Amino acid sequence: MTFKARLDWVTGLTWVLCTCTGVAANAEPVPCNTPLIFVDTEDKELHRRVCDIAGSALPVLEQCLLKLVDPVTISFSGELGNPDELCFGLYHQGDEWIELLEPKAFEQAHTDSKSWAALPAAEHFDAIVVHEFTHALVDQTALVERACSADEEYIAYAMQLSTLPDSARDALIAASGVSQPVPVESINQVMFGLSPVSFAVRSWLHFQEPENGCGFVKKIIRGEATLWIGPE
Ligand SMILES: [Zn+2]
Q1: For the chain, what are the domain ranges?
Q2: What is the whole-number distance in angstroms between the Cα of residue 91 and the centre of ligand 1?
Q3: Alpha helix (H) ranges present in the chain?
Q4: How confident is the model at residue 155 (pLDDT cuts 50, 70, 90)?
């Protein structure tokens, strides 16, 4: 089955991809100290914070062969997604452009979203930066198109939870109710549609097993492993 056919099948089955037809940012993005990362905000503190998070995530991502090779711009919006499918952040594939909910809107969305309430809002915001930045690097460096969005999201959530403080991650895992061990078959696009938090926790618990980790991520980006379930 082609990637497009798989995507159609999955989309028709259970879930809607978080998409957005946003407009390009107005202000000139300001470069971070880390080369190739630009943040579009006049808020100096927010600029510094987002630059620091993305820059600090780079060594973690590079261990999994995820490299920053093209410029990425991060901008902010007061609204992302739609009332049925709220997004904390979006990566516009092919455009090297990440949109994040601006901090005030993010805090409100975080409060409204009961599923992520186990995380402090500030740590959740930082983790979303890592999540979307990971999508950008996967897009830039993967050798093949991923077979399904579950493959993409596995990597993004594994990196997102890897960069959380231990106490925050433990609280999220406890609140999710996911029990261990996590069979890889339970990490799939259907689970993602049913509960992104459960998918996120399952992804990280699978990723942190010594036999998986970056080795499994590398298999996904080489096209040697997939979380795809459905017709071949
Ligand atoms: Zn994602």
Answers
A1: 3-222
A2: 8
A3: 3-13, 44-63, 103-112, 121-141, 149-162, 166-176, 189-194, 196-207, 213-222
A4: very high
